[in-house]
């Protein structure tokens, strides 16, 4: 039993020669090289023993000759250092030995069938980019086959061969060739399936990442035309900005992990609300959160959507505030109007929106008050049939001057 496990461990180590543990064309080629070399080397030893067992006195020259193929056991070490040299020596060793055996045993033994496999093996090991090498091996295989079929009618005079042995050799050669080709194809199909599965999984991850970064419609447009410029004029969008009150002094006292965890918990809740109301999350900037309705595609009642989002954000923050010793409040501002949106960059793609509507919504948040939702007159006019408002009056807004604003109080009952 100990010998069995030691042999099994040795064979496993041999099959790992030249492999680095990563899925790649190189590793696949090295694996095929190791598999063929092991199979050919062991087969040579088995044939040599078989000849001696069948007729040691009459077949010992063939037994010695076939052992030449056992060189293949060393070929992975040569291939590791020089792919071309390893393939030339490996195929040359096979041609020489098989022609020698065909001269000794005659073409009726069928051993020359093994030559048919040489181009396939070299192609799998060296790869299609070694076209000169593969062509050379193909030509040498063709020459060797022509010689084997036409030059050696019967066995050599010093070899004792009978029809029963020839039948055994023909049958075993055909079966081994079939087994090797079938086994190689199965192995390559398994490797191809693994590669395709990995590629499909990576594709799904890439797709998920793309659709997380960009709106679905925009991602689809970029996939169809990767080099196109995405720039859209939007006639009516509603923009909401929210900002966590007193985040900067709070962050100054927290370790990085807690800061990230704090923001992640709040913004994850906001993401869920954005999805609930069919809004497009545009970005987060530090502790600020921005969403929009009506982009990249128009939607019905965009201002109503962001208003509902704003009210839900208030309720969510109020519920979450009990989990924070210092409490939790947000300032929210919203505005509606035309804007321009598009994709910036060609490496780290970013879908953004610009225009006076965006600037005004941002100012509504920054000039607002903790726990309240400040809106412009334009937004109020869209909402006043369904929502309650409190007048704030005229506010001097940086970059905009005097602006009349309102507090969104809630839904009309």
From TrEMBL:
Q: Please indicate if the UniProt record lists Transcription as a keyword.
A: no
What residue stretches are annotated with the Guanylate cyclase domain? 238-365
Cellular location(s):
Membrane
Q: What is its main location?
A: membrane
Top-rank taxon of the source lineage equals Bacteria
Query: What's one Pfam family the UniProt record gives for this protein?
Result: MASE7
Q: What InterPro entries does UniProt report for this protein, alphabetically?
A: A/G_cyclase (IPR001054), A/G_cyclase_CS (IPR018297), Cyclic_nucleotide_synthase (IPR050401), MASE7 (IPR048432), Nucleotide_cyclase (IPR029787)
Record Gene3D superfamilies:
Nucleotide cyclase
Q: Which UniProt keywords apply?
A: Lyase, Membrane, Nucleotide-binding, Transmembrane, Transmembrane helix
Transmembrane segment boundaries: 31-53, 59-77, 84-103, 109-126, 133-152, 172-189
Q: Which family does it belong to?
A: Belongs to the adenylyl cyclase class-4/guanylyl cyclase family.
Protein name per its UniProtKB record: Adenylate/guanylate cyclase domain-containing protein
Q: Which organism is it from?
A: Sulfitobacter sediminis
């Amino acid at each position: 039993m100990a010998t069995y496990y030691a042999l099994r461990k040795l064979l496993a180590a041999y099959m790992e020669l030249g492999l680095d543990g990563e899925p790649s064309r190189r590793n696949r080629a090295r694996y095929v090289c190791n598999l063929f070399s092991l199979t050919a080397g062991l087969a040579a030893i088995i044939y040599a023993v078989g000849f001696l067992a069948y007729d040691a006195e009459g077949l010992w020259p063939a037994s010695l000759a076939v052992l030449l193929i056992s060189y293949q056991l060393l070929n992975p070490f040569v291939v590791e250092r020089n792919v071309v040299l390893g393939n030339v020596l490996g195929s040359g060793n096979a041609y020489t030995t098989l022609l020698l055996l065909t001269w000794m045993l005659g073409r009726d033994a069928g051993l020359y069938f093994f030559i048919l496999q040489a181009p396939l093996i070299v192609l799998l090991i060296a790869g299609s980019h070694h076209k000169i090498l593969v062509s050379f091996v193909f030509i040498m295989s063709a020459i060797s086959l022509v010689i084997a079929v036409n030059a050696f009618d019967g066995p050599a005079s010093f070899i004792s061969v009978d029809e029963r042995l020839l039948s055994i050799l023909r049958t075993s050669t055909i079966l081994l060739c079939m087994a090797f080709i079938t086994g190689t194809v199965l192995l390559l199909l398994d490797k191809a399936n693994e590669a395709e599965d990995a590629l499909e999984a990576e594709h799904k991850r890439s797709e998920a990442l793309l659709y997380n970064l960009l709106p679905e419609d925009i991602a689809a447009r970029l996939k169809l035309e990767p080099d196109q410029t995405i720039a859209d004029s939007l006639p009516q969008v509603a923009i909401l900005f929210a900002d966590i009150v007193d985040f900067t002094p709070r962050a100054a006292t927290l370790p990085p992990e807690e800061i990230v965890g704090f923001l992640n918990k709040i913004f994850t809740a906001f993401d869920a609300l954005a999805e609930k109301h069919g809004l497009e999350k545009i970005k987060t900037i530090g502790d600020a959160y921005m969403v929009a309705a009506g982009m990249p595609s128009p939607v019905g009642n965009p201002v109503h959507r962001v208003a509902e989002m704003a009210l839900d954000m208030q309720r969510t923050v109020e519920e979450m505030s009990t989990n924070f010793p210092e409490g939790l409040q947000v300032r929210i501002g919203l505005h509606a109007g035309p804007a321009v949106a598009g994709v910036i960059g060609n490496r780290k793609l970013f879908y953004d929106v610009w225009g006076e509507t965006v600037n005004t919504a941002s100012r509504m948040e920054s000039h607002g008050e903790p726990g309240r939702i400040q809106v412009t007159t334009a937004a109020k006019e869209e909402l006043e049939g369904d929502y309650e408002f409190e007048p704030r009056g005229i506010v001097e807004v940086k970059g905009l001057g005097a602006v009349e604003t309102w507090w969104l109080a809630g839904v009309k009952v």
